[in-house]
Amino acid sequence: xxxxxxxxxxxxxxxxxxxxxxxxxxxxxxxxxxxxxxxxxxxxxxxxxxxxxxxxxxxxxxxxxxxxxxxxxxxxxxxxxxxxxxxxxxxxxxxxxxxxxxxxxxxxxxxxxxxxxxxxxxxxxxxxxxxxxxxxxxxxxxxxxxxxxxxxxxxxxxxxxx
Length: 162
Fold this sequence. Notes:
Layout: H1 2-21, H2 25-40, E1 46-48, H3 54-61, E2 64-65, H4 76-91, H5 95-105, E3 109-113, H6 118-121, H7 134-139, E4 147-152, E5 156-161
Parallel strand pairs: 1-2, 1-3
Antiparallel strand pairs: 3-5, 4-5
Helix pairs in contact: 2-3, 4-5
């Protein structure tokens, strides 16, 4: 009976991965990107990423992040400001403003999923779609004056500050 339950759970887990992301290899690629970040970035580096990815960057890559989804009540006001800065960074059309956010937090890397979740990240009055946002430029791999692409896989990009 226990063996049957374990087999069913394994099958369901594989089906969930296939249906949600299209391929179970997405998870392997995700872990590989974070392991690359751990091995090939400065130990004291700070990573700017979506707040939903922050805790995984901390856990797997052992790097500090600007914000994550793990928030203690005593940190609520500061974290709200950080979330706003992350949204501003990704959705601004002003590269100087984005650069100021990188320097404000001492960020040295940007970890980005190519399948960026606009719905959960765009809850501000910023223009969230369009070709002039920093996010669109990063996804299109356009040259940026202060960021250099250092890693790319099918689903992930990592940039380093210049």
